[in-house]
Amino acid sequence: MPLSTIASLGPLAEKTVIVRCDLNVPLKDGVITDDGRVRASLGTISALLEQRAKVVVISHLGRPKGEPDPQFSLAPAAARLGELLGQDVPLAHDTVGPSAKSLVAALEPGRVVVLENLRFNPGETSKVDAEREAFAAELAAMGDAVVSDGFGVVHRKQASVYDLAKQLPAAAGQLVEAEVEVLARLIDDVERPYAVVLGGSKVSDKLGVIENLLPRVDRLVIGGGMVFTFLAAKGYAVGSSLLERDQIETVKAQIAEAERRGVRLVLPVDITVADRFAADAAYEHVPADAIESSSFGASGIGLDIGPASADAFAAAIADAKTVFWNGPAGVFEFEQFAAGTRAIAEALTKIGGLSVVGGGDSAAAVRTLGFSDDQFGHISTGGGASLELLEGKRLPGLEVLGW
Ligand SMILES: Nc1ncnc2c1ncn2[C@@H]1O[C@H](COP(=O)(O)OP(=O)(O)O)[C@@H](O)[C@H]1O
Ligand SMILES: O=C(OP(=O)(O)O)[C@H](O)COP(=O)(O)O
């Protein structure tokens, strides 16, 4: 079934349209380090403003715990949106409280307001249907229709992504439409060899997708924070690196399954181990099976793949015809741990086929490391969302729009 699109909502002039964006931008000291997700939201918002709709932008940022937390305020994103739109964009101090209600009530056609972080409210991410529905009803009371344009979050069954679209006339925005169109090409009919490169820090989310990816891919390349659960599954000590201890047995089964299916599993042969998590940490390159042999012993933390691994990853990517990459290979935000991520990005720019980078931090990484968007086939605003789409799964935020 095709996605329902904005046109299906009929004329929107003077109507209050809630737009669910993904403005979950990377921040350093309160400053946006990559505004890609704000820029990606402009198409839909501008199209609605041209129709003289009243636009209410809603989004999450980070993972606050269901209550207000200033470090996760949407203020930087709202300010950037205003700069890019060339109009003053006020930010409500709450999401469905008095500030939001009065700003929405006073909204003029052709103007935008941003409501504060959805995840400051426990109903947004509640596992209890009635709690999510109740929060969605409070959002729904503020608008005439909802446009779902936060592609990065369509894999989450959350109030603003799923329940809200059941309570109001709903349609996909331009970004969601465009993302689905490109990524759908990677579901059924990929040019082979097909390599998926994984990394990043949302380890349990990503370990979860591997089982369904194994029947689809020819090569699976693993770096980033998730690699240490693989190394632990092989029986290696990983010092103080990120580790999902309760996933070790699952990962052992995945390694065996990759072998059974003839999927080439590329794991690091060396690791860059640091004495602490810091930009100026001391570091050493050590074999992947001897992480605790560095001078830092068991307190060493793996913050990047090592140089031999970077070469091996680049080689595994080089002759692939389709590559999907989500998750930095290391803590690229610290220059001395960015080499693995840089090597992967470089390799993707050289393949003779379709290269796709997905994820907020992965997109930020390629841009901050000096690559330009046009060096890749597609840069997706969603990491987990793209991966779950590529698994062939139905995603709650798309299913509710008819896809
Ligand atoms: N070895 C590692 N240890 C800790 N964090 C890591 C490691 N490798 C990568 N990361 C972190 O992973 C983060 C991105 O992860 P994630 O959110 O999963 O990616 P994306 O947003 O692209 O989907 C980055 O901030 C990076 O610093
Ligand atoms: O950053 C995001 O996803 P990504 O890290 O998979 O790209 C989205 O904003 C979703 O955030 P969430 O993983 O906290 O639900």
UniProtKB/TrEMBL annotation:
This entry's Gene Ontology molecular function terms read: ADP binding; ATP binding; phosphoglycerate kinase activity
Q: What is this protein called?
A: Phosphoglycerate kinase
ATP-binding among keywords: yes
Q: How does it assemble?
A: Monomer.
Biochemical pathway? Carbohydrate degradation; glycolysis; pyruvate from D-glyceraldehyde 3-phosphate: step 2/5
- Which residues of the sequence carry a binding annotation for substrate? 22-24, 37, 60-63, 119, 156
InterPro entries reported in the protein's UniProt record:
Phosphoglycerate_kinase (IPR001576), Phosphoglycerate_kinase_CS (IPR015911), Phosphoglycerate_kinase_N (IPR015824), Phosphoglycerate_kinase_sf (IPR036043)
Binding of ATP occurs at 206, 302, 333, 359-362
Supply the Pfam families for this chain.
Answer: PGK (PF00162)
Family to which this protein belongs: Belongs to the phosphoglycerate kinase family.
Q: What is its main location?
A: cytoplasm
- Enzyme Commission no: 2.7.2.3
Query: Which gene produces this protein?
Result: pgk
Indicate whether Cytoplasm appears among the record's keywords.
yes
The alphabetized UniProt keywords are: ATP-binding, Cytoplasm, Glycolysis, Kinase, Nucleotide-binding, Transferase
Q: Which domain of life is it from?
A: Bacteria
What GO biological process, any one, is recorded here?
glycolytic process
* CC terms in the record's Gene Ontology section: cytosol
